[in-house]
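Hi all, posting the design record for the shared folder.

TITLE: backbone redesign
STEP: 1 of 1
STRUCTURE INPUT:
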């Protein structure tokens, strides 16, 4: 990334960022070739700030969240830098990044059941994770902290010695959140923390996440399908498409004045899902083994121009702050002659089928 870009990104922050991700890439090896699930992502997060990460299923949100924490499955490779308190997490020894997780970095997973050991009581889960990071605490102190965290998530103390299978899906999700928050980490990735929950509990969790950053200055990367939650709970939003963040900025700016056609389509389809359900973004997300040349969204973009099919868009500052990568926004002087011609519908269809 250019120096101007990182300057622009930090200028936008009033304080030193807690997390600075620079050109992060994650890919999975398969027999078809590498799935480039995250392909050059950069962002900053200030203390106490919440960044909402949105985008269609399969665009790489969970992979990015896990990649930031160093929690990728075997066979996944990663590249880039993630700076936290002056250190690059991605180049740390596994032992050191393990120590950071839990005490300073927390992760709330999309699928809670796969993360809880069915043979361990909830009390044992808490004992194990707290003890690891603060061996000086006594059993009673640990219990007290665990019960406080559970109470915050609306789980009664009587359930402390239950097993994971004795909880409902929504309760298990809240358990995961309590476990991630008990050590008051300074940076938390929450991957769809509310999908398994009903609307009431969802509102409650948004409230808790808001309290958390007010009380402990926790920074949060909130991965969600729910644009309403982003509007309610986030300071900034990052829109992801096919492994890249195509637009990011303050929530009010981006939602009121989306610069990228994908952001516009995403906002439109979210609204119509609630109303008619007939409006969706035509075409399918690209194959991440062999994504389209130029802008990855061009085969589905209603406003695509000739340049979009051949050249990667440049990451530039949005008119009202934030970043965007789309040839419609600029830089105009880098568009070759004839590049502004609209792509014809036939060409779009061919690209779509390819
Ligand atoms: N362990 C894995 N091995 C191989 N490919 C994977 C693996 N995990 C994810 N992928 C692929 O990487 C891409 C991104 O997946 P990811 O789970 O990060 O998307 P997502 O944005 O979180 O989607 P969703 O909204 O459905 O949770 C997809 O193409 C997916 O099939
Ligand atoms: Mg996911």
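Okay, here is what came back for every position:
SEQUENCE:
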């Amino acid at each position: 990334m250019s120096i101007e870009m990182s300057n622009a990104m930090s200028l936008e922050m009033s304080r030193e960022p807690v997390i600075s991700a620079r050109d992060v890439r994650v890919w999975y090896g398969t027999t078809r070739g590498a799935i480039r699930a995250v392909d050059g992502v950069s962002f900053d997060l200030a203390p106490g700030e919440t960044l909402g990460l949105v985008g269609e299923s399969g665009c790489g949100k969970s992979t990015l969240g896990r990649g930031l924490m160093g929690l990728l499955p075997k066979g996944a490779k990663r590249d880039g830098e993630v700076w936290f308190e002056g250190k690059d997490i991605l180049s740390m020894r596994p032992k050191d990044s393990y120590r950071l997780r839990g005490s300073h970095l927390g992760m709330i997973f999309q699928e809670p059941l796969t993360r809880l050991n069915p043979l361990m009581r909830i009390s044992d889960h808490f004992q194990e994770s707290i003890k690891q990071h603060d061996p000086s605490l006594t059993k009673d102190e640990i219990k007290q902290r665990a019960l406080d965290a559970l109470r915050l998530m609306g789980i009664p103390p009587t359930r402390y010695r239950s097993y994971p299978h004795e909880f409902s899906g929504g309760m298990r999700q809240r358990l995961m959140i309590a476990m991630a928050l008990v050590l008051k980490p300074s940076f938390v990735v929450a991957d769809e923390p509310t999908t398994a929950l009903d609307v009431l509990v969802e509102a409650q969790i948004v409230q808790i996440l808001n309290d958390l950053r007010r009380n402990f200055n926790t920074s949060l990367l909130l991965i969600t399908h729910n644009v309403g939650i982003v509007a309610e709970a986030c300071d900034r939003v990052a829109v992801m498409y096919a492994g890249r963040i195509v637009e990011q900025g303050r929530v009010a700016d981006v939602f009121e004045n989306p610069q990228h056609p994908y952001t516009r389509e995403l906002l439109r389809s979210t609204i119509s899902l609630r109303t008619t359900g007939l409006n969706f973004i035509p075409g399918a997300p690209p194959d991440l083994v062999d994504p389209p040349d130029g802008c990855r969204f061009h085969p589905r973009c209603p406003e695509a121009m000739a340049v979009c099919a051949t050249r990667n868009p440049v990451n530039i500052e949005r008119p009202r702050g934030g970043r965007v990568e789309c040839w419609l926004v600029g830089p105009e002087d880098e568009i070759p002659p004839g590049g502004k011609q609209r792509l014809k519908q036939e060409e779009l269809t061919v690209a779509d089928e390819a």
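COMMENT: The pocket of adenosine-5'-triphosphate (ligand 1) is lined by residues 28, 30, 35, 37, 55, 57-63, 73, 110, 288 (CB under 6 Å).
Let me know if anyone wants the other runs.
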